[in-house]
Task: structure prediction
Amino acid sequence: MRVAAVQLNSTADPAANLAVADRLTRAAAADGASVIVLPEKWTAMGSDEQLRAAAETLDGPAVRWARASARELGVDLIAGSIVERVEGREKLANTSVHVDPQGELTAVYRKLHMFDVEVDGRVYRESDLEDPGEEIVLSQTAEGLQLGLSICYDLRFPELYRILAVRGAQAFPLPAAFTLATTRDHWETLLRARAIENQAFVIAANQIGEHPGGNRSGGRSMIVDPWGIVLAQAPDGEGHVVAELDIERLQEIRTRLPALANRRADAYRWPQEVRA
Result:
C-alpha cells in the first residue's frame, strides 16, 4: 500500500490554498498513493480574525472538494484539518475528515488537545478561538488499513495513541502545523516514539514556512514505519512524499515483539490525585 504526506505553506486565502492542495493531491495520486494526508489547517493559516473569516462547515467548499477529489482519484483522503464553524457554538473547531474513494465522509475527528503554550518566546492560545473535541476516532481505508486519527499537538499525548492502538489502529495519519522550533527539536523524535511504542505507521503531513501573523512551521513531513524507521522525509518547500506500507512487516513486528499484547492493564491503577 502506497501512502503520501502532502506539505503546504498555507496562507489566509482559502481559495489559493485549495488550489495548491488540489495540485499536490493530484501529484500524490499520480505517484501511486492510495492514501493521502494533508496538513493541519490547510485551508487557512493566520491570525484569529483571519481563521474565523476562513472557517466553514462540513458542507463547505473544502470538504466538498475533498469528497469530489477522493472520488475522482479513487483514493482515501485524510483532508488534513480545517477550521470548522459548528452550528450553535461561538468557538470554532479544528477538524480532520477522512473521505473514502467513493467520496463518502467516513470519519470526522475534532482535535482533543488545545495548543495553549509558550514556544520560543511566542505565546499560543488555541483555546481562545477553538473548542476541543470530545471523541477518540478510528477509521478504516478501502484497503482495510485501520487508522487512528489525531492532529498536531495531540502528538505529545502518548495515552491517546495507546488507546487508538489497543482499539486496532495500524497507522496514524497526522496533519500538523508544528512550529519551526518544535519541528527542529522534537518532531522526528515524537513521530518515531509514537510509531515504536504502538508498533504502527505514522503518516505525518506538516505545514512549512512563514504564515500570516508571523507563525512559522517547520516542514519535514515524514512517513515512519512500526520499527521507527523513517521511510520518507520531505525536503524544504511545498510538495509530497510517498512510501510503501508493508502490513506484513507490521504484523511480524507485533508478533515477534508483542509489546501491545504484553501490556499489564491490570497494574495501571492511578490514584485519584494523579488522574486529576
The longest helix spans residues 180-198.
